[in-house]
Write a structure and sequence with these properties.
This protein is 58% helix and 0% strand. The protein is mostly helical and 144 residues long.
Length: 144
């Protein structure tokens, strides 16, 4: 007979996973050179993920895994209540995930992936965001 306590002990908490790159590191050139891509993906990004996964386990922070990055959103919504280790690595993981997800050499600089709906939700569109930035810069430049 299988005991419920045994099943619960064997339950593995979901972990944060890296997005998969659809291109080789050198295929992002000339926008980003291969060495920079490799460094950011294999060292920085994977480092953030490893440290974040260790920290949420050590601090007993529940992680919910879903397709829309709900687990990291839940942590970031209340990030100030967590340790510096969680805060720093959650931010690094989130920022790099969005960055890598939206990189697409075939899009020639156009937004794609996880970041596009964020601009739509917060600003109406990426073009409206750019208009806001440009008008703000223009106002600041003309203050003096």
């Amino acid at each position: 007979m299988i005991k419920l306590a045994s099943l619960l002990k064997e339950q593995v908490q979901p972990q944060f996973e890296p997005v998969k790159l659809n291109w080789k590191f050198d295929e992002y050139e000339p926008a980003i050179d291969a060495e920079t891509m490799k460094l950011h993906y294999t060292k920085h990004y994977i480092g953030y993920i490893d440290k974040l996964n260790k920290a949420v386990k050590d601090e007993n922070i529940p992680v919910v895994s879903d397709e829309k990055m709900g687990g990291i959103h839940r942590i970031l919504e209340t990030v100030s209540q967590y340790s510096d280790t969680v805060q720093n690595n959650a931010g690094g993981f989130f920022n790099h995930t969005i960055w890598f997800d939206q990189l697409n050499p075939e899009n020639k600089g156009k937004l794609s992936g996880l970041i596009e709906p964020m601009f739509d939700e917060q600003f109406g569109s990426y073009d409206k965001f750019k208009d806001l930035i440009y008008s703000t810069i223009y106002k600041l430049e003309n203050l003096s």
